[in-house]
Amino acid sequence: MAQLISLGSLKAPTSAAQMRASLAKSGCASSSCGSSDGPADMSPELWERVKDHPCYSEEAHHYFARMHVAVAPACNIQCNYCNRKYDCANESRPGVVSERLDPDQAVKKVIAVANEVPQLSVLGIAGPGDACYDWRKTKETFERVSKEIPDLKLCLSTNGLALPDYVDEIADMAIDHVTITINAIDPEIGAKIYPWVFYDHRRWTGVEASQILLERQMLGLEMLVARGILVKVNSVMIPGINDEHLIEVNKAVKAKGAFLHNIMPLISDPAHGTHFGLTGQRGPTPMEVKALQDKVEGGTKLMRHCRQCRADAVGILGEDRGQEFTMDQLPETVSYDPARREEYRSVVATVRGEHAATKEAAKADLAEVGDAPALLVAVATRGGGRINLHFGHAQEFQVFEVSPGGVTFVGHRKVEQYCHGGHGEERAFDGIVETLQGVSVVMCAKIGEAPKDRLEKVGIKASDAHAYDWIEAGIAAWYAAEYGTQPAVLTA
Ligand code: CLF
Ligand code: SF4
């Protein structure tokens, strides 16, 4: 996978100047979605609570990292998109197994990661089963990590069934961010997703099971909101089952005070051995996800930058450094050193300001364009908010919508890397074209004439004229040139 933040220098003792230089050419990339508009669309108090959380603020995900520790293996429900051999698919990619840890191991691993990954700002527990059902281990892990690294944000993800039993403890422990997966508010629809739940010492099935789950999820949501905890709702979009229904889910969770709604595509593969995978239930295409997200715009704020990461993920969203921190690679003893995390934060504060100013300038320039269509732009980036990756090296494109109203991040699309050692792979190219459905232009640091011509033949323009610009500035400059207006101040 392309390193969205290839801060190689941050793995070694590093000066603030080196960190700044690294961020200028890496980091992560995009602009405004979900809670991303920063202080303009929320109170300073709220911004303070989300500005370092890579999932709750799209803007923060350029700079900050989360890690998950897989300490909670037990689960109390069955989802049709889950195979218990693997991790909880409500918050992670199905078909991936994490190294399961006890709280002792988890604390050691968090300290080791905090010493190596200065971007780390959040510790999440997202399974591999349910973090609330396996509450004892979740609680012990959070409490012990908090003593060692008090400024690390604690984040929990749950299916919601056991949640109401622990809301008071969650509030007492200063867990400020909780995700509940809610796939339906109609138990008839829920029954197509959940074959059973285990509640009150017995197993429930059918509509009754979904009714119980729904009541507990809504109760948990209300209780968290009443205590001022920020709640994100995850929903898995399952075509033909709950896709259109998620519009109602969005309204319902907004009414209950959810902060953010993350609509994730079902990932369905027979090889994962899930009910949906084995029965041929398909996942949605990127354009179907976008169309649904566009329909719910105006309801609960949307998260569009989720990477459906693993239950033992480490790093900036979109990169996974988990394999660098398996237990067998950790030193015998570890002790926390806050120096590099502190230094990194001071660097980010400056870079962030520059990026925000550039976005404002790009917005003002686009407003001058006049009447022009909205287009999708795919950007090859290895991070830092810049167009800084070769077309052939991209394993993911960040997708933005541009119009005279501005540049808006709308999602990402994963692709197979096209170029290996100077040679383009035919199969990968075909896959990229299919994945970029609906996109009008690809912007990258460099693209060869051959792939450029081939993209143009299928109606996708390609440009490397804005290599290393800030993304919003580069897109705005390209768009303004395309529609006949010369931008005043656009590049950094
Ligand atoms: Fe982890 Fe989830 Fe907390 Fe983030 S992930 S528990 S809120 S710290 Fe984030 Fe990963 Fe998407 Fe989850 S990108 S799968 S939304
Ligand atoms: Fe699997 Fe998570 Fe659903 Fe439990 S809540 S069945 S672990 S996807």
UniProtKB/TrEMBL annotation:
<dbReference type="Pfam" id="PF02579">
    <property type="entry name" value="Nitro_FeMo-Co"/>
</dbReference>
<dbReference type="InterPro" id="IPR036105">
    <property type="entry name" value="DiNase_FeMo-co_biosyn_sf"/>
</dbReference>
<protein>
    <recommendedName>
        <fullName>FeMo cofactor biosynthesis protein NifB</fullName>
    </recommendedName>
</protein>
<keyword id="KW-0411">Iron-sulfur</keyword>
<keyword id="KW-0408">Iron</keyword>
<dbReference type="InterPro" id="IPR034165">
    <property type="entry name" value="NifB_C"/>
</dbReference>
<dbReference type="Pfam" id="PF04055">
    <property type="entry name" value="Radical_SAM"/>
</dbReference>
<keyword id="KW-0535">Nitrogen fixation</keyword>
<feature type="domain" description="Radical SAM core">
    <location>
        <begin position="61"/>
        <end position="312"/>
    </location>
</feature>
<dbReference type="InterPro" id="IPR003731">
    <property type="entry name" value="Di-Nase_FeMo-co_biosynth"/>
</dbReference>
<comment type="function">
    <text>Involved in the biosynthesis of the iron-molybdenum cofactor (FeMo-co or M-cluster) found in the dinitrogenase enzyme of the nitrogenase complex in nitrogen-fixing microorganisms. NifB catalyzes the crucial step of radical SAM-dependent carbide insertion that occurs concomitant with the insertion of a 9th sulfur and the rearrangement/coupling of two [4Fe-4S] clusters into a [8Fe-9S-C] cluster, the precursor to the M-cluster.</text>
</comment>
<dbReference type="InterPro" id="IPR005980">
    <property type="entry name" value="Nase_CF_NifB"/>
</dbReference>
<dbReference type="InterPro" id="IPR013785">
    <property type="entry name" value="Aldolase_TIM"/>
</dbReference>
<keyword id="KW-0004">4Fe-4S</keyword>
<keyword id="KW-0479">Metal-binding</keyword>
<dbReference type="InterPro" id="IPR000385">
    <property type="entry name" value="MoaA_NifB_PqqE_Fe-S-bd_CS"/>
</dbReference>
<comment type="pathway">
    <text>Cofactor biosynthesis; Fe-Mo cofactor biosynthesis.</text>
</comment>
<comment type="similarity">
    <text>Belongs to the radical SAM superfamily. NifB family.</text>
</comment>
<keyword id="KW-0456">Lyase</keyword>
<dbReference type="InterPro" id="IPR007197">
    <property type="entry name" value="rSAM"/>
</dbReference>
<dbReference type="InterPro" id="IPR058240">
    <property type="entry name" value="rSAM_sf"/>
</dbReference>
<keyword id="KW-0949">S-adenosyl-L-methionine</keyword>
